[in-house]
Amino acid sequence: MSIASISYSSLRNAASEAKSVAKRLDNYADAIDKTVYGKLNSYNGPWSSNLSTAKSRASSKISKLRDQSTKYDRYAEDLTDLREQCQATDKSVRTKVSSLTATFKENHGIKDNKVINAISYFFTKISNDTAIGRWLGDVRDQFSARFDYFKQSISDWFHWDGGKELLKGILVFAVELALGVATIALAVITGGALLVVIAGVIAGSIMILNSLVNMANEGRAYQATRADDPATGRRLSSLNTLSDTMRQEDSRFLHGFANTLDAVNTVCTIVTVVSGLGNLAKKGFKWATGNPASLDSIKVKDILTNANLNTFTGKLKTTIGNGWIETTKAIQRGDWQFFSGTAKNFGTDFLNNLKGDFWKFSNTIDSVKSTKNILSSINLLNSNGLNLTSLGIIALVRVPVANLPGETHIQVGDFKSLIDDTSKSFKGIRDMFSNQSPIDTDIMNSLSQSGNQ
Question: What angle do CA 180, 185, 191 make, to 5 degrees?
Answer without folding.
Answer: 130
